[in-house]
Automatic annotation (TrEMBL), chains A, B, C, D:
This is Argininosuccinate synthase. The gene is argG. Residues 179-396 form the Arginosuccinate synthase C-terminal domain. Its main location: cytoplasm. Residues 8-170 form the Arginosuccinate synthase-like N-terminal domain. Keywords: Amino-acid biosynthesis, Arginine biosynthesis, ATP-binding, Cytoplasm, Ligase, Nucleotide-binding. It is found in: Cytoplasm.
């Protein structure tokens, strides 16, 4: 494949070793101007300190830092939560949900600066390349896409550091890095190192945000979440924006070791990977939302919501955010969420977030029905007819068999 | 509805207050012989002590006690576990899975004693009446079915006790009973009392089998499960039958407070109910099986297994065990389970069962792929083509839109 | 069950034998005032001639005739069509879709006249009782419901005629009626008579609206449909309302014998029934909508639309229109339909409606791609990488197996 | 990508222009021995005449012709039919089902002759490359794969003919070929030419096997199919093997213009294509199988079968035959098919195959139920209870709303 003709490229820049190499590499290999774009999605704040200077020092002509934290939680995470999506039954999609909001903002910067190309620092083995490029295809099919990791022949941190040193580009990155990590307002993921064998248990240093459940407080703590239309709108009675609610719950959850998972998952690109994810606030939110649903959704609606959750988990994981199918699934979930209003008390204790109390103005649960006495709405004699018809096909089938 | 003409009825007898009343009631109201049938599915052993004498004293002509523990675990629970079924995302179907094995054995006793009717002690508000009668419809559509709770006008424990007293039938049952419970080898459920308001947290006395996580050992314990074809076949290296494995794991799990859930669920008969369930060993088994699946199932297979789990959860909950659909779903799950072989270490700690180590001879996880270096099977340059085609429809759609 | 206390009831009145009996029967058995409600949903117009007089003559205090034709097609049929629902793969849900619009209007009349009860003339064996009462439960749970067919002991037409004669109520109904029929703007259904054995082919007189394909014109006819957002908005270039479009297409389709089906279906109440349905215009509309979807929906969206179609077919058939689940499924389908714009030419010939030409401004089909030459968007070399990753899990699995 | 090191390659050889070029091209470009493999899957018999000589003349060292007709129909088509799969609602998967049986036999030849590579003549734009290579990955991950169309720079028939002429390899292929076709025992497909615009109707010459419905006999013909366990086992009372049954029904169907479809479909590789498919016998078989299912499958089973059909349609279309997921879906379908026994009369007339009579020993349809009189199994009064419980959640929800 011959090199593309590129004049100005916007690169998703993190300030880390990889993307620091990408800036000079793009300039040298494509002879183009490079604009750095930094998405503030709630990653470790010190990563953003001095990042503009770093980008310029690496050769970028400009550097844009865009605060996407509110948008990420409000427009990407909250809609996904309504579907109840856990990828492969466990993963709360922290990295997956951040990619489309970053890619969208990156395209907007590209339009603003008149760029003709987009670049990202994802490797050729992972999901993120698909998520970025899937978003680019949907939002800016006219822009060229450069994925340096699939092109260059740098295959070690040492080579990357040498590359920068040879060009006198300062870089504080260390030669060795045990784990590969990704963090945003919602979660932090950890891969590599000891985790590379599935027969190894995670080490203590695999976990970053959350207290080890064994070292978490011996006393449980209770937190109350207010839920409206499938969204957490308040904590302990205080109205909060989605991002604020997440920050508060992250702190509470992390203290009690809530939200750790250790999973081997199927990547979209056909291989399996193993990761440790910490999603303390998100785990609390999911428990709260699912608990209100227990009160509100009828049997068939609950089942459909579960099916939507599976579908959404794949769409979001697979980088399908900006597709008609994802929009359709989200529309269905939003419709079901219209009734999901209420309040839930969550107990936090040594790694667990457990709903202990729940109520809703839309609750279909009725204390009267639950008791043994007579009531007006439910007449036990109805059950006989119900069962008879409900089992009719079984009965006929069995009578048939007997006749033979 | 006029009374059925019945000569001999087999009643599912538990030795409790309800079914003790049912025996004389059936005799008086149907003028028939009553045979008691007791299913030993692993409920509290002292419930079975002297149960035959009790049945005879209540007026039964005969009493059969049948040990169904092995059959329950092997033929009902294990197949269901392969589907990954959690009803409404949480409930491990303990009561649901026991009903078909009981009903089947009850029908066999009816055939053996030449009965023309079957009776059960389920109330008219619950799921169990549907599960029993659904099984009866499939297995013995020619036998009549009597559901005394839907017929008689006894509506309190006091009335039931008076009924027995008036007939000089001895009964040790107490006048008040706070909770309604059901237990078998797999689980114990608790309903009623404080749980009747969803805004009440469960009391300590809502939990029977499991240690309160707050009082569980401060030291974690590790247990290793051997898995073959989707079934737990050994614990800590010792080969065990399904029932034996369950007994061992129940003990370990209960000690660490594992397997408690508190759920508001949709009953099949259209109302919601709230229950606390304890499934210590089952929770460990599920964690182990799902963990091996993480290694073994590809992305699309994993998704289908999740869908099968949702379907199976409804079929089993709804009393559809003996239907062609249930058989079909189980066949699909068994097929996927053929590769589910391996070993998992589970950490038990204060209410949680967490897989920390897992391996499988069928694992699709490859350490080589997970690292950053080059490898033979996966060529990063392939990803470019993959993404291009994977996103092609998005690209075309977007280019279309731009044209307009 | 003791009789309900009813003061004023609104009965869904058709002018036929059954509902003519129901009016005096309700008055005699419930001692209440009876208001007749007639839904004009496009059934045979002569059924409506003089219907108000007939109702009054039968004893109704008032009679309301409400024109629901536009609402039926616009608000019930069109949304359902977007889902692509065919019940059990064949049935276009003609009767099912009409029930909720009728029930809703009936409730509105009940509110208007201050009635405290609703009645319908559906038998106890069919789906319609569930559809009516399901709608009543959702829209007016406070109103009592009377289903005379489940209460009275009239079991033949002769008994019904005698009942009317004894009360001097005039009725033109004949003593024998071979078939049971239901018609509205969308379809006509025929059950009974020769159809009662599935081993009988339908007779000529089983079909009412459509020409026998064998007697249909020997020359095909072509009709062009304009489609916007998943709705037929014009025919042969002429803008038409949903109902008008249906009328035009019914005429064309009927002439060519289009839209006959003969199906054995599963009723909701557990038994199977056999019916012949004629849906000439609807069949043409479905062919047109599905054809535009072929151009517009990507692979995964098309599959989801098919799944929504199955779900919707059951929800609509089962009388679940006014449920949160139905609303959610419709929201998903509407979202996908947003792109379904275009134009389709349908060939009508001897029972078939076949799309021969189709185009759409949103078409993802590209002539360039379809040809063998080189092109810009699709690079054949991409396919190698795609396949490699797409098959990666298969490859690893197989390599694993070889190692053993 | 550097050329692979190949010693002996087995190429799927058709005798057509493309694969005739591939033989010398492989020898020249890979310096390897080339073995030709011809799959007899029921394509036009004259294509096989003298094919071994042709292969040798083109440079193959050996040529194996393997008769796969019985295996194709018995082991690939029949299992798929049980799922009811129509790709995107229409396409009967003719080409898709043939690829795995061919690939499997090709791998067997490769093992037999000790080859280290496999080659096919599929283009880089189609599905077949994925199907072949997907099968190779599952069956022979150790063998190298060569896809000449993705490598060479021949882009026209003229260039291909020149290539052969320059090497004195005889070839009877014409310079121009309007349509691209694929045929086997099940179907023939036609792409290209006039079909490249979706706004063009197919020309007469787009159809090969089937009579134009307008020219088909004016008299309908009736054919009776015997069905056992979801398989057509006889026609008009004569027991036939799967392949024999297909041959007989192809002839009858083709005569009456049955089995034409014209579809725009989503290829797996992200683009849309348009094709005309003729599947006369298959269309009759599908109508027969679905008709027996109407009698035999209960409501929930029928719905699951429909879902399996959608899933299977994608798996088979996408080249996923040799995957655990496909095996699982087939296991589920086979389980449901166990009851699908019976007999169906199909009317063939001017393009249509319509079941007019059907019966089954497992039929759940009961004439008694269908009539209006009283019966033993179904008591109309049961319906009241059924509806009450069936609508309970709706009722509670609505009562809730009224309270607010």
């Amino acid at each position: 494949m011959s090199k593309l003709d590129v004049k100005k490229v916007v690169v998703a820049y993190s300030g880390g070793l990889d993307t620091s190499v990408i800036i000079p590499w793009l300039k040298e290999n494509y002879g183009c101007e490079v604009v750095a774009f930094v998405a503030d999605v709630g990653q470790d704040a010190h990563e953003l300190v001095g990042i503009e200077e770093k980008a310029i020092a690496s050769g970028a002509s400009e550097c844009y830092v865009v605060d996407l934290k509110d948008e990420l939680v409000k427009d990407y995470i909250y809609p996904t939560l309504k579907t109840g999506a856990y990828y492969e039954g466990k993963y709360l999609l922290g990295t997956s949900m951040a990619r489309p909001v970053i890619a969208k903002a990156q395209v907007e910067i590209a339009r603003k600066v008149g760029a003709d190309a987009l670049a990202h620092g994802c490797t050729g083995k992972g999901n993120d390349q698909v998520r970025f490029e899937g978003a680019f295809a949907a939002l800016a099919p006219d822009l060229k896409v450069i994925a340096p990791w699939r092109e260059w022949d740098l295959v070690s941190r040492e080579q990357c550091l040498d590359y920068l040193a040879a060009r006198n580009i300062p870089c504080a990155a260390s030669l060795t890095k045990i784990y590969s990590r990704d963090a945003n307002a919602w979660h932090i993921s950890t891969e590599g190192g000891v985790l590379e064998s599935t027969w190894n248990a995670p080490n203590d240093d695999c976990w970053v945000w959350t207290t080890d459940p064994e070292k978490a407080p011996n006393e449980p703590e209770y937190v109350t979440l207010q839920v409206e239309k499938g969204e957490v709108v308040g904590v302990d009675g205080k109205k909060l924006s989605p991002y604020q609610a997440l920050v508060v719950l992250n702190e509470k959850g992390a203290k009690h070791g809530v939200g750790r998972i250790d999973i081997v998952e199927n990547r979209l690109v056909g291989m399996k990977s193993r990761g440790c994810y910490e999603t303390p606030g998100g785990t609390i939110m999911m428990e709260a939302l699912r608990s209100v649903e227990q009160l509100v959704l009828d049997k068939a609606s609950f089942e459909f919501r579960q099916e939507l959750g599976i579908k959404a988990s794949h769409l979001v994981y697979d980088g399908r955010w900006f597709t008609p199918l994802c929009k359709s699934v989200m529309a269905a979930a939003q419709s079901l969420a219209d009734d999901v209003n209420g309040e839930v008390v969550i107990k936090l204790y040594k790694g667990q977030a457990t709903a202990t109390q729940k109520r809703s103005p839309n609750s279909l649960y009725s204390e009267e029905f639950a008791t043994f006495g007579a009531d007006e709405v439910y007449d036990q004699s109805h059950a006989g007819g119900f069962i008879r018809l409900y089992s009719l096909a079984s009965r006929i089938r069995s009578l048939n068999a007997a006749k033979k």
